[in-house]
Write a structure and sequence with these properties.
Strand content: 25-35%
Shape: rod-shaped
Largest sheet: 10 strands, antiparallel
Order of helices and strands: HHHEEEEEEEEEE
Helix content: 25-40%
Strand order of the largest sheet: 1-2-3-4-5-6-7-8-9-10
Distance between the termini: 168 Å
Radius of gyration: 48 Å
């Protein structure tokens, strides 16, 4: 009796077919896994983009993780320099005169250097007439002067370089009519003047002095 032997080539072919089937099954499983991972990654990216989060995803075989960009030092601008506390203390504007005007173009205030070299701040009414002035002379002596509606000096307070202080009152013609002075040594005096500028009274009198 002859027993039939299995065909070696057929067996080999069957093994190859089985191996191919197994390989195809593995590839299909890997493909489904890849699709699932990519779907999850896409959903995560969409969700994080909607909330403004930085998106970064790393997975073997799907590409390297996206690294966040390196932060760059802030760029200084004219606006940031102007409001920066460290810069604001060093900012200044230099000029020989600053003028403030109203909505009608009338001169209402000015800060300037006068011809004699002193500094003055003058304030004017709506008609442009000077009504008040604060001055510091070239000798450093300060004074405050008030003017009437016609621009005539009516009152002056001054501190002289010798240390004396004084108050002067003027009439409607701008003529000095009364003067109160305290000398640098502390001695007070009062003088009254006529319209022509002649002194008509003085306290203390020459005898009392």
């Amino acid at each position: 009796m002859r027993i039939a032997q299995p065909d070696a080539e057929a067996g080999a072919g069957g093994a190859d077919s089985q191996s191919t089937v197994d390989t195809n099954s593995d590839d299909a499983a890997i493909g489904r896994f890849r699709d699932a991972v990519e779907s999850i990654a896409a959903e995560n990216i969409a969700a994080r983009s909607a909330t403004g989060e930085t998106v970064g995803f790393a997975s073997a075989g799907l590409g390297a993780a996206t690294a966040p960009p390196e932060s760059e030092p802030p760029i200084a601008t004219a606006e940031s320099a102007a409001v920066s506390p460290s810069n604001s203390s060093r900012k200044s504007i230099a000029a020989e005169e600053f003028v403030l005007i109203d909505s009608h173009g009338a001169r209402r205030a000015a800060l300037a250097l006068e011809d004699g070299g002193g500094a003055a701040l003058t304030l004017s009414d709506a008609g442009g007439r000077t009504r008040a002035a604060i001055r510091v002379g070239i000798d450093g002596a300060p004074s405050v002067v008030l003017y009437d509606a016609l621009g005539r000096r009516r009152l002056e307070v001054a501190l002289k370089p010798d240390g004396s202080s004084g108050l002067g009152l003027y009439d409607e013609n701008g003529e000095g009519r009364a003067e109160v002075v305290v000398s640098g040594g502390g001695a007070p005096s009062l003088s009254l003047f006529a319209a022509n500028g002649k002194r008509i009274a003085r306290l203390p009198t020459n005898r009392e002095r």
